[in-house]
Design goal:
about 60% helix; 19 helices; about 5% strand
């Protein structure tokens, strides 16, 4: 009788709704371990964690995912280095959204077998006694330990609790973040990839919902950038920092704007480079508004054809557009001098800081020329961009 009662409810003997709450809490700890330890601390070095906190997260991940720190970090760093290219381990832009959402875990496991990826991108991860003798040596045995613990604590329901724990990260991290986070959502910044913010409230998956913010400033410990955004992972990090268990190393810079300078100088160039994603975001908004204005002047057929460009006008290198969109953009630019000037000058603006061989003096000369032509263009969007560039100031030390 006692054995039957034990198997039925386990040591905790919780009601069904209490089991659901407990499951959500346990999976949230796993999410916190991924975003704080694996992602922000290990992959991007945005913060340092106290050794005890780091060991707790490593142990918890061993119990709930079986993932090895070096593998996860290497694959994620490669994703950033090769983002949206055929070498990206899990881009929905090259592999298809359905594949990444439903087979993201398989993509992860396949890339984990790539010794070159681990060697090139996995440096700096833990290689202590625990890693060598427990976490790496008995990678999946931790999940077995968790199964036993769940059965002891929750009884028969523990099997369902364990199953949910096992699929939580493969679905949310490998599927939702890597899939939907590069396909659907809103963008604060014109990052050079397809990353999006899934939601402004980063709670369910620990703040990772703010994926466009992260790809714009990957080494920032804080993923929320706008006043209306919330990153629960940042709340946990600040709590750990307050009690001396973490140290934040880097956060995203904030655009510093003052009275416009009369002369574009080296300080202006420095400030522009630091705030390049801010100016590109403002520029993208101007492009969309200009396109809307042009669409109102067109016939119904042309309006339907050119409206598809809204999604693609954020891309800096128009040569990377699909062939059909390139043709549409060329036709649109032939019809509208303003659109032609806006698209071409955006490409020129990007080139100012992308010229790897250019000296600072050459970059400054290009910027001065760009601002002068923008102000003389007679196009309000370009004049606003030039004014903002002259208003940027380097962030205070």
């Amino acid at each position: 009788m006692y054995l039957i009662d034990f198997l039925d409810g386990g040591l905790l003997d919780l009601s069904w709704w209490q089991v659901i709450v407990a499951t959500l809490l346990l999976t949230h700890v796993t999410i916190a371990a991924v975003t704080i330890f694996l992602h922000r601390s290990q992959a991007h070095r945005a913060l340092d964690l106290h050794p005890a906190v780091a060991l707790f997260f490593r142990t918890w991940l061993w119990l709930t995912t079986g993932m090895q720190t070096k593998e996860w970090v290497a694959i994620h760093r490669k994703h950033h280095a090769k983002c949206e290219t055929p070498e990206d381990p899990h881009s929905p832009q090259t592999r298809g959204l359905k594949t990444v959402v439903w087979s993201g875990a398989e993509l992860y496991m396949a890339e984990a077998q790539n010794a070159e990826t681990l060697a090139r991108y996995g440096h700096g991860t833990p290689n202590d006694w625990f890693e060598r003798n427990v976490f790496s040596r008995f990678a999946w045995q931790g999940c077995g330990v968790m199964l036993v613990a769940d059965l002891v604590l929750f009884g028969a329901a523990g099997l369902a609790v364990w199953a949910i724990q096992m699929i939580w990260i493969p679905f949310h991290a490998a599927g939702i973040i890597n899939g939907i986070g590069h396909f659907w959502g809103y963008r604060n910044y014109d990052a050079p990839d397809a990353s999006t913010n899934i939601s402004p409230w980063g709670i369910w998956i620990g703040g990772e919902e703010l994926h466009n913010n992260h790809h714009t400033y990957p080494t920032s410990a804080k993923l929320s950038n706008k006043w209306y955004e919330f990153d629960i992972g940042w709340l946990y990090i600040r709590t750990l920092e307050t009690v001396g268990l973490a140290k934040v190393l880097r956060v995203a810079p904030r655009a510093t704007v003052a009275e416009p300078k009369g002369t574009v100088d080296a300080e202006t160039l420095q400030a522009l480079i630091a705030n390049r994603y801010d100016i590109l975001a403002k520029y993208a908004g101007s492009l969309k508004q200009a396109l809307r204005d042009e669409l109102q002047k067109m016939s119904t057929d042309d309006r339907a054809r050119f409206a598809r460009l809204k999604r693609w006008l954020r891309k800096g290198d128009v040569t990377q557009l699909p062939a059909e969109e390139q043709r549409s953009l060329s036709e649109l630019m032939a019809q509208s001098r303003a659109m032609k000037t806006l698209v071409e000058m955006r490409t020129e603006l990007l080139a100012i800081w992308n010229r790897s061989s250019a000296s600072r003096e050459q970059m400054l000369a290009h910027l001065q020329d760009w601002v002068a032509r923008a102000e003389a263009s007679g196009i309000r969007a370009l004049q606003d961009a030039a004014l903002r560039i002259r208003s940027y100031r380097p962030a205070a030390a």
